[in-house]
């Protein structure tokens, strides 16, 4: 009898373990923009490239996907209801698509804040500046804006008639945004929210820089750079702009870096095998592995958030 009771107890404990804090983590997944069969949709796949699933499956253009911090929702850009692309959100399985922005200019490239309460995005909507003696309507091109996660309270973060901004990326602390700034050159800037101007990290570089991605610990930025010979590579640097390093150093074109949640890997796009495919490398640039193996054209890969 005692032995039977012990066996039953072990079985009950084993059954309860998954319910009491020892849950197995969900496998990592990758969101990606994919041009296929003459159309562009948002797909999701396993971290090894298997299990490719079309989430949007819409005749319109759908791209620039971004996971919410809890991994339950996806923000993306689409022109499905308007000639000008706008920001939408959907569930992680592609259901319940909701439009967030309705503006007179294009809205694109959403990026969730770390707490999931805000979304940074690029907008070319016109805006008004109040000056002495009246107001001035500005229609200068794309700038970085931030809105609530439900689309409310859009607020312009960058702006200047001589500058444009793209590729917003939140720092893990939620207090800073990195982005690509276009003026007389193309640079990576970091903007502390609440301050008027951002600070260039690449002003002394001999190449144009864009598509910044923060490391999970906030200490480094991966980015795409176009060298003087026109070749595009993936670089990393410290968040003060120092210790700049070329990770890919390949004659092919590389783009769109994305860190793994543990900071050990970086996804990127490369056409080194003719088509723009998804690759993965260690954070130091070693052990490059091709993830996708088809004739599609991929862009903007992004890891699913760390399991919580």
Detail the poorly predicted runs: 1-24
Give the strand tally: 26
Gyration radius from CA atoms, angstroms: 21 Å
User: Structural class, from secondary structure content?
Assistant: mainly beta
Main β sheet profile: 4 strands, antiparallel
Helical fraction: under 10%
Order of strands side by side in the largest beta sheet? 3-2-1-26
Number of helices: 1
Strand content: over 45%
Shape: globular
List keywords for this structure.
mainly beta; disordered N terminus; 308 residues; globular
Describe this entry's structure for a reader:
It is a single chain. With 308 residues, this protein is mostly beta strands. It is built from one helix and 26 strands. The chain has one helix at residues 2-16; strands at 29-36, 39-46, 53-54, 62-67, 73-78, 86-91, 98-99, 107-112, 118-123, 127-131, 134-138, 143-148, 155-156, 164-170, 176-182, 186-192, 199-200, 208-214, 220-226, 232-238, 245-246, 254-259, 265-273, 275-282, 289-290, 297-303. The strands form seven sheets. Strands 3-2-1-26 form a four-stranded antiparallel sheet, with no helix packed on it. β1 (29-36) and β2 form a beta hairpin. Mean pLDDT is 89; it is low at 1-24.
Task: Present the secondary structure layout.
Elements: H1 2-16, E1 29-36, E2 39-46, E3 53-54, E4 62-67, E5 73-78, E6 86-91, E7 98-99, E8 107-112, E9 118-123, E10 127-131, E11 134-138, E12 143-148, E13 155-156, E14 164-170, E15 176-182, E16 186-192, E17 199-200, E18 208-214, E19 220-226, E20 232-238, E21 245-246, E22 254-259, E23 265-273, E24 275-282, E25 289-290, E26 297-303
Antiparallel strand pairs: 1-2, 1-26, 2-3, 4-5, 5-6, 6-7, 8-9, 9-12, 10-11, 12-13, 14-15, 15-16, 16-17, 18-19, 19-20, 20-21, 22-23, 23-24, 24-25
């Amino acid at each position: 009898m005692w032995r039977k009771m012990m066996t039953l107890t072990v079985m009950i404990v084993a059954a309860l373990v998954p319910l009491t804090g020892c849950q197995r983590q969900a496998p990592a997944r990758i969101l990606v923009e994919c041009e296929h069969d003459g159309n562009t949709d948002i797909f999701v796949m396993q971290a090894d490239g298997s299990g490719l699933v079309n989430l949007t499956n819409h005749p319109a253009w759908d791209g620039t996907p971004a996971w919410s911090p809890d991994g339950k929702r996806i923000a993306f850009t689409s022109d499905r209801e308007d000639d000008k692309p706008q920001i939408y959100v959907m569930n992680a399985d592609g259901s319940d698509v909701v439009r967030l922005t309705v503006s007179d200019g294009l809205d694109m490239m959403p990026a969730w804040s770390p707490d999931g309460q805000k979304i940074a995005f690029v907008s070319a909507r016109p805006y008004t500046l109040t000056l002495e003696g009246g107001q001035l309507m500005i229609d200068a091109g794309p700038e970085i804006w931030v809105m609530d996660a439900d689309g409310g309270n859009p607020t312009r973060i960058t702006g200047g008639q001589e500058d444009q901004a793209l590729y917003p990326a939140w720092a893990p602390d939620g207090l800073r945004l990195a982005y690509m700034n276009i003026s007389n050159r193309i640079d990576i800037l970091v903007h502390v929210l609440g301050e008027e101007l951002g600070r260039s990290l690449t002003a002394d570089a001999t190449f144009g820089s864009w598509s910044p991605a923060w490391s999970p610990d906030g200490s480094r930025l991966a980015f795409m750079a176009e060298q003087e010979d026109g070749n595009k590579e993936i670089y990393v640097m410290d968040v003060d702009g120092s210790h700049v390093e070329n990770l890919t150093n390949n004659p092919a074109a590389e783009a769109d870096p994305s860190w793994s949640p543990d900071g050990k890997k970086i996804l990127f796009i490369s056409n080194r095998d003719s088509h723009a495919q998804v690759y993965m490398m260690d954070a130091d640039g070693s052990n490059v592995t091709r993830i996708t193996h088809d004739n599609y054209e991929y862009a903007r890969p992004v890891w699913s958030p760390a399991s919580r």
